[in-house]
Design goal:
CATH superfamily of the largest domain: Response regulator
Keywords: DNA-binding, Phosphoprotein, Transcription, Transcription regulation
Number of strands: 6
Structural class: alpha/beta
Largest sheet: 6 strands, parallel
Strand order of the largest sheet: 2-1-3-4-5-6
Oligomer: single chain
Shape: globular
CATH class of the largest domain: Alpha Beta
CATH topology of the largest domain: Rossmann fold
Protein name: Response regulator
Strand content: 5-15%
InterPro entries: CheY-like_superfamily, NreC/VraR/RcsB-like_REC, Sig_transdc_resp-reg_C-effctor, Sig_transdc_resp-reg_receiver, Tscrpt_reg_LuxR_C, WalR-like
Number of domains: 2
């Protein structure tokens, strides 16, 4: 069973997500939190596999909560639920360790699949969010030189795989695109994360955009 903690300041939202996720045979909602501070305490007490995190909340927002949760446990998986157009913190949340984003208007199936994907260690970025992220990275300008230098640690094939990861492709899709076995892609992704000192595919995507390895229009 995948254990989920739901974090949202609205009772109806928490209850609605709880009903939807508990109806899944492989997912169990183990707790709810009303804000970021409550979330940090609940994560420490309940050890959920996935934290379903709202961004805009009183006292401590989802960004600060994500930062604290990931700082306390590098393996923590936070799936941020967002309306995106109203949230300025999306890019920052990726930087502090969120494993992915899902729009709040997602269907029950998309919500459950999102939880499963993040629990399995994959990145989750909805296409609409990816487009906005590309725009944001474009606005931010050139990367810091140290990050640019780290690209040189990658082989040509690893660089190619990183670009495809940043474009939102799954391991299976990358394998089909490069005409290799999916297990080979998994190996490449693991090596990329180790070489770049990153925790997951989401941070790898952020790195690719920050270093201009992937740019708008590619």
């Amino acid at each position: 069973m995948i254990k989920v903690l739901i974090v949202d300041d609205q009772v109806m939202v928490r209850e609605g997500f709880s009903v939807l996720l508990n109806a899944m045979p492989d997912i169990e909602v183990v707790g709810e939190a009303v804000n970021g501070r409550d979330a940090v305490h609940k994560v420490a007490a309940l050890h959920p596999d996935v934290v379903l995190m709202d961004i805009r909340m009183p006292e401590v927002n989802g960004l600060e909560a994500t930062r604290e949760i990931v700082a306390a446990d590098a393996d923590a998986k936070v799936l941020v639920l967002t309306t995106f157009d109203l949230d300025e913190y999306v890019y920052q949340a990726l930087r502090v360790g969120a494993s992915g984003f899902l729009l709040k208007d997602a269907s029950a199936g998309q919500l459950a699949d999102g939880v499963r994907i993040v629990a399995a260690g994959e990145a989750l970025l909805a296409p609409a969010i990816t487009k906005r992220l590309i725009s944001e990275f474009s606005r931010l300008g050139a990367p810091r030189p140290p990050a640019q230098e780290r690209i040189g640690d990658l082989t040509e094939r690893e660089t190619e795989v990183l670009v495809l990861v940043a474009q939102g492709l799954s391991n299976g899709e990358i394998a089909a695109h490069l005409v290799v076995a999916e297990s080979t892609i998994k190996t490449h992704v693991s090596r990329i994360l180790v070489k770049l000192g990153l925790r997951d595919r989401t941070q790898a995507a952020v790195f690719a955009y920050e270093t201009r390895l992937v740019t708008p229009g590619l």
